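Integrase, pasting as requested.
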Amino acid sequence: MAGEQRHLHTAGDEDPFWRLWLELPEPWKGPVIGDGIDDWDRITENGDRRIDLTGLPDLIAAELAWMAHWQALDGTRSSVLGTNQFANILRRAIRDNHPFPISIRAMGWETAAALQRWFYATRWGRLPPRGSVARLRVIFRFSRLALLARCTNGPWWSLDEWHPRCDPRIPLAEHEPQAHYGCSPSKIGQPWLREAVKWCLGTQLEVGTLRWSTVSQERMRCFVRFGRWLETFTDPLDVLGDPAHAVQLAAAFRRWDADPANRLLRRNEKRFAGQPVHPRLVNDDLRAVAELFAFVAANPAEAHQVLGPHPWSRVTDAHAAGWFRQVSRIPHQRELNDEHYVDDHALAQIPAALPLLGLGRREQMLVTRGDGQQVTVDGFDDPQAMRMILLQILTGRRSGTQTHRRADASLSG
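Structure tokens follow.
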């Protein structure tokens, strides 16, 4: 524990973090950070306040310094108050011989929050205020994820938290609309399932089978729901058992997945509890599980190397086929007629906000919401989508394969 060993350069000579430390600008190495840094008052959230890391274990002080510098490069303000508060917590823990991990990378949010509660309880006899908790959480969100990503020797998908903002190794399309969103494989409760999902989705993303939008906003959520369903089992590994039972298990998952109570867990989602789950959403979950089984079955040697012999060696194509069989066919239903598939009000709103699609992510535009209120919105950096919609408006045609294929050629010349 860090309370027993403060100087870790010797133990950390082979730590990949020290490569990052060598690249850190000298003024950011501390232990007091702020002097000699240009535009410090613009970089930080607290004016001329300095970050004070004196008295901390060398490794933790260096990690916090790197994280503060990363925040400045990321475009967010360095968390001076949060970092200083956490430094005070660690100094008191050292003084009182209260144990804590030897590095920030080994210290998850729950551990840091527990340290903060201990600090407030022993010093002031109360729980930490909400603002202090929020400041500490800022440190343990993006900057810590960025630190973990750069100190990981394995592939990016081996991490339990994925965020393109923090890990530039994550493959993105040229105009990825969801690049500012992350996802959390850590929400999948079963370790054996989580590791397989990370390998499968990471590989599909790298080879271009899936895009980041699909992985982060759809597939990962599908597997989180699948994992929660497995928690209802006495033995979750039954799902990898006899392939003859795959159809029955998939049917049971379909029934569970179609219940809104099993899908709407957030408080702001409860208002949709009375609405039925669309069959396409259930199909998405079934298809995701079936494709995972098919992926593992099609790559047995790689699966053995990445996941080990147990329990995935039992999966066969028959498991995947049983789950694919439960994907229902949904008849196509035309919801809008040919003449008025976009009404006049919507048609007036679309061109007004159309430039927003083409603006860069760092550019902003003032738009009017449906309630008449004007708000400032960041650009989506997707000029191709902007041109495609403009082509639809100019020609009066609906979106289709031909429109998508010819949008650039029709408007770029």
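Note for the archive: The mean pLDDT is 86.
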